[in-house]
């Protein structure tokens, strides 16, 4: 954590991490391609493990797949994925899975543990359900559980030695925060649900079990479905991600009812690309995720530099003498005491960043703008430079913060680029890509505010704009008439 704006009446804090786990919204999305050590070849004649064959046979018995199904699990570079058995057209339906096979809060509610889980957050209830069902020999999903991995390359599973390669990165702090969050949730569940209900949970449940379930949900759960914000769908979750797919619209949907005499709903998956027999079927997991989020959720990153991001976290200090006024202004414009701004490589600064920075730094002779008479118009004034002192301050502290952050990494960008030329294991490659991306972003942010510093003398500030509005200042900035002697 680095304190900034300490030289002015206001203050802010620029954190090096952002806890992305909030009870206010779902954090569960699609899955990461998983390693499948038991598969050996790619094509329409796919050699897979007996467990995958048994899983496929179960899907046949359940009426999910048939001889007409155009895809099948197969060996792919990512491990296990869906391979086209014939040519497939763009937007063609490749599979449909009925709701009775979904694992979601409804499945939990209908189970023996539904009553004791009714007051839990949905993801916690589903996590407990996954753990319990995996231990049952008579579970409907036993053949599905047999093909699930013990872990992925998500950073939550990295050893301390592996995590040391993330030194200085925001991802390291976020990963540690996530792991602590999961541990705290497990301890609470253990005390409040698991131990008091040993008849419902006869098998011992460990923290490792809970991390397994958390990772499955984090990497494999579909979201943004109609009336379904958290659902694991066997077979559909084998589909892998590709950067070649540039849209995440309409790849999957819920249809219902499943038939004339059925009230079941279907999860329908379409191919966003035209494919030839033997090609792998891909979708886009999420166009808006940064590489750090991809690494945390799924255990991979893209080489696309546009995925690199750095989060600036700004805060109005409670010790600021204008704290109440600034907080009121921030909240009136969609922000709060703390505001997060994700800056992506080669993209403009996010909306609201500069006004929020100027608000936090506002003080001294500029503090008159905080008076109630300006309350409805101040944000518009903050969209533009307020004063040279204010603008100079935000440039200086942001640049100092960037330099401090850059000093926290144990390698340089040049060293990372050289490492990328070597053959690295998957986790080391992720670490190198993440830290190089963050450093490039910090340099980009520093350069943006360096250019602003060079333009300070040419900028037009609030006072000049106000005098122009009153007709008291010429276009070249000269103050007209006798008024000039007062300035």
TrEMBL record:
Classification via PROSITE patterns: SAM_MT127 (PS51583), SET (PS50280)
EC number(s) from the headed UniProt entry: 2.1.1.259
GO cellular component entries: chloroplast
Catalyzed reactions: [fructose-bisphosphate aldolase]-L-lysine + 3 S-adenosyl-L-methionine = [fructose-bisphosphate aldolase]-N(6),N(6),N(6)-trimethyl-L-lysine + 3 S-adenosyl-L-homocysteine + 3 H(+)
Keyword Plastid: yes
Keywords of the record: Chloroplast, Methyltransferase, Plastid, S-adenosyl-L-methionine, Transferase, Transit peptide
Main location: plastid
Top-level EC class as recorded in UniProt: transferase
Domain SET: 62-286
CDD domains, per the entry: SET_RBCMT
Signal peptide residue numbers: none
Binding site for S-adenosyl-L-methionine: 78-80, 220, 240-241
Biological process according to GO: methylation
Residue positions binding substrate: 220, 224, 237, 252, 285, 298
One annotated GO molecular function: [ribulose-bisphosphate carboxylase]-lysine N-methyltransferase activity
Localization (cell): Plastid, Chloroplast
Highest taxon in the source lineage: Eukaryota
Cited PANTHER family: [FRUCTOSE-BISPHOSPHATE ALDOLASE]-LYSINE N-METHYLTRANSFERASE, CHLOROPLASTIC, UNCHARACTERIZED PUTATIVE METHYLTRANSFERASE
Family the entry assigns: Belongs to the class V-like SAM-binding methyltransferase superfamily. Plant protein-lysine LSMT methyltransferase family.
Name of the protein: [fructose-bisphosphate aldolase]-lysine N-methyltransferase
Phylogenetic classification of the source organism: Eukaryota, Viridiplantae, Streptophyta, Embryophyta, Tracheophyta
């Amino acid at each position: 954590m680095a304190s900034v704006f300490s030289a002015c009446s206001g203050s802010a804090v620029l954190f090096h991490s952002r806890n992305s786990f909030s009870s206010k919204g779902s954090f569960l999305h699609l899955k990461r391609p998983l390693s499948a050590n038991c598969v050996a070849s790619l094509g329409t004649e796919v050699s897979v493990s007996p467990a995958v064959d048994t899983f496929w046979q179960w899907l046949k018995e359940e009426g999910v797949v048939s001889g007409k199904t155009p895809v099948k699990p197969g060996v792919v570079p990512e491990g296990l994925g869906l391979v086209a058995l014939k040519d497939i057209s763009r937007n063609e339906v490749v599979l449909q899975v009925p709701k009775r096979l979904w694992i979601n809060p409804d499945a939990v509610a209908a189970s023996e543990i539904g009553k004791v889980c009714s007051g839990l957050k949905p993801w916690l209830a589903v996590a407990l359900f996954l753990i319990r069902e995996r231990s049952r020999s008579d579970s409907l999903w036993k053949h599905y559980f047999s093909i699930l991995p013990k872990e992925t390359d998500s950073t939550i599973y990295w050893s301390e030695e592996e995590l040391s390669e993330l030194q200085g990165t925001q991802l390291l702090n976020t990963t540690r925060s996530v792991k602590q969050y999961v541990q705290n949730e497990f301890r609470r569940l253990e005390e409040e649900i698991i131990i008091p209900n040993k008849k419902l949970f006869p098998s011992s449940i460990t923290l490792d079990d809970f991390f397994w379930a958390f990772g499955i949900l984090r990497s494999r759960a579909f979201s943004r479905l109609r009336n379904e914000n958290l659902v694991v769908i066997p077979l559909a979750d084998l589909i892998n991600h590709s950067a070649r797919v540039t849209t995440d619209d309409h790849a999957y949907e819920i249809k219902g009812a499943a038939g004339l005499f059925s009230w079941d709903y279907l999860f329908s998956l379409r191919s966003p690309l035209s494919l030839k027999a033997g090609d792998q079927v891909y979708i886009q997991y999420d166009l808006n995720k940064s590489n750090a989020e991809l690494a945390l959720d799924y255990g991979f990153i893209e080489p696309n530099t546009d995925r690199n991001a750095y989060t600036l976290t700004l805060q109005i200090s409670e010790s600021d003498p204008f704290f109440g006024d600034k907080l009121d202004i921030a909240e009136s414009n969609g922000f709060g005491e703390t505001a997060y701004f994700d800056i992506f490589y080669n993209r403009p600064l996010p909306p609201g960043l500069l006004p929020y920075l100027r608000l936090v730094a506002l003080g001294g002779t500029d503090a008159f703008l905080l008076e109630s008479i300006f309350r409805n118009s101040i944000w518009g004034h903050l969209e533009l430079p307020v004063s040279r002192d204010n603008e100079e301050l935000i440039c200086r502290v942001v640049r100092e913060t960037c330099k401090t952050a850059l000093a926290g990494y144990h390698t340089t960008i040049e060293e990372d680029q050289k490492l990328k030329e070597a053959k690295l294991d998957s986790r080391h490659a992720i670490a190198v890509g993440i830290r190089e991306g963050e450093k490039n972003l910090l340099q980009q942010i520093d350069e943006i505010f360096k250019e602003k510093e060079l333009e300070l003398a040419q900028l037009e500030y609030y006072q000049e704009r106000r005098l122009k509005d009153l007709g008291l200042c010429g276009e070249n900035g000269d103050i007209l008439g006798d008024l000039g002697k007062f300035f």
